[in-house]
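ok new one. same drill as before - structure tokens go in, u give me an amino acid for every spot. 131 of them this time. try not to just spam alanines like last time pls lmao
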């Protein structure tokens, strides 16, 4: 066991304290850097997640728009088909009405001829009884 002068002991202790302070400072710096890296990674992850979400929403919106266009096209086709059927039904109704009018006119003409023939037969019968 040997003797160390107090000034040397103080210097040794001061060096040890200084080393400990530098070590603590390095640890604080490393932890600060770790927090910065973690924060940056978190921001990158959130940004990536938002991009994926935006892409999914965009794809979903595009898909919805496509489905809407398809549905509107089908609806337009159905409307056009119904308009064609309505036009055909209208033409058929007009033809039916025309045929009914022709039959009514023909029936009326036949009744008029039948009445005229009956009137002539009656007149002939009356003439025959007078003669």
């Amino acid at each position: 066991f040997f003797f160390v002068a107090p000034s040397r002991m103080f210097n040794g202790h001061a060096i040890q304290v200084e080393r400990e302070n530098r070590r603590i400072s390095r640890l604080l710096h490393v932890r600060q850097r770790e927090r910065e890296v973690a924060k940056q990674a978190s921001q990158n992850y959130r940004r990536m997640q938002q991009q994926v979400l935006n892409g999914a929403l965009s794809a979903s919106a595009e898909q919805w728009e496509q489905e809407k266009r398809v549905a509107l096209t089908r609806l337009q086709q159905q409307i056009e088909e119904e308009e064609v059927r309505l036009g055909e039904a209208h033409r058929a109704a007009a033809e039916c009405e025309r045929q009914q009018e022709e039959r009514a006119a023909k029936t009326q003409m036949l009744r008029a001829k039948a009445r005229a023939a009956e009137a002539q037969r009656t007149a002939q019968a009356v003439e025959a009884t007078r003669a």
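The longest helix spans residues 6-130. and btw The chain is about 95% helix and 0% strand.
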